[in-house]
Amino acid sequence: MSVGSLGVLGVVGTAADGIETLRTGLVEPAIALGWQAAVTLTPNAGRWLRANGELDRLESLTGLPVRDAPRLPTEPRPHPVADCYVVAPASANFVAKLATGIADNQALTQVGEALGTIGVPVVVFPRINAAHARHPAWEGHIEALRKAGVELVYGADVWPLDEPRQGPADRELPWAAVLGSAHRVSGT
Ligand SMILES: Cc1cc2nc3c(=O)[nH]c(=O)nc-3n(C[C@H](O)[C@H](O)[C@H](O)COP(=O)(O)O)c2cc1C
User: Fold this and answer.
1) Residue 51 C-alpha to ligand 1 middle, in angstroms?
2) Are 40 and 55 within 8 A, CB to CB?
3) What is the reported pTM?
4) Could you give the count of Cα atoms lying within 13 Å of 127 in the half-sphere of its Cβ?
5) What pLDDT score was predicted for residue 56?
6) What's residue 188's pLDDT?
7) Counting atoms of ligand 1 from 1, which one is nearest the CA of 91?
8) N or C: where does the chain have the smaller number of CB atoms within 10 Å of the terminal CB?
9) How many Cβ atoms from other residues are within 10 Å of residue 172's Cβ?
10) Residue 80: helix, strand or coil by DSSP?
11) Number of other residues whose CB lies within 10 A of the CB of residue 23
């Protein structure tokens, strides 16, 4: 396990395009910069990354289990306490649930609690398309997260919105902007 001089970065991934690059785009660079990375996935993202072998690679790299399920009350906490959380890519579903306080999986439980914890910054990159953004509830979700102090990697400069099924599925995620936001909000 690499113990990071910058602290513990809670890396949270969801079932959105680009999650397969979480290790190479975010976790490896974060560790190289001095973070200890602890990865948690939604159950859907866990299924995707288990199927393509990335979950095992993330565990080898971080020296920690990748969490995609809650622990039993009798089990010890498998991750150290995070100093900062990054949710990338965040599905439209995850953003909606986080904004409304739903915590029905391990990833939402951790990030939802961090939103209300003093001194734990949260960065969210919504990996969405133009249709997600036109949903009548979307702007309210974004406002709720902003009000909670979430640092959003969001907007035409970092992620111009494609119409559904029109952008390339392998479009590169703005990993440098995501990691830069984590450094800014955590003062590292
Ligand atoms: C191949 C594939 C790619 C997807 N890409 C996205 C995406 O980029 N953004 C998004 O919001 N939803 C995407 N979805 C839909 C989500 O996976 C779906 O809403 C799921 O319930 C999200 O689960 P989670 O938020 O718990 O991870 C995709 C689904 C599939 C099958």
Assistant:
1) 16
2) no
3) 0.97
4) 23
5) 98
6) 83
7) 11
8) N
9) 10
10) coil
11) 23
Per-residue tens of pLDDT for the chain, all 188 residues:
557 799 999 999 999 999 999 999 999 999 999 999 999 999 999 999 999 999 999 999 999 999 999 999 999 999 999 999 999 999 999 999 999 999 999 999 999 999 999 999 999 999 999 999 999 999 999 999 999 999 999 999 999 999 999 988 789 999 999 999 999 999 98
Burial 103-137, CB ≥16 within 10 A → b, else e: eebbbbebbbebbeeeebbbbbbbbbbeebeeeee
Nearest CA to ligand 1 atom 11: 91
Whether 44 lines ligand 1, by a CB cut-off of 6 Å, is: yes
Q: Which atom of ligand 1 is nearest to 95's Cα? A: 25
Spatial distance between the Cα atoms of 61 and 154, rounded to a whole number of angstroms: 28
Domains and CATH numbers, the chain: 7-69+80-186 (3.40.50.1950)
- Cα distances from 43 to residues 19, 84, 161, in angstroms, run 13, 21, 26
Q: Please name the amino acid found at residue 159.
A: W
Question: 171 CA distance to ligand 1 centroid (A)?
Answer: 15
Tell me the one-letter amino acid at 168: P
Cα 37 to middle of ligand 1, angstroms: 23
Beta strands in the chain (DSSP E): 7-13, 35-41, 84-90, 122-126, 151-152
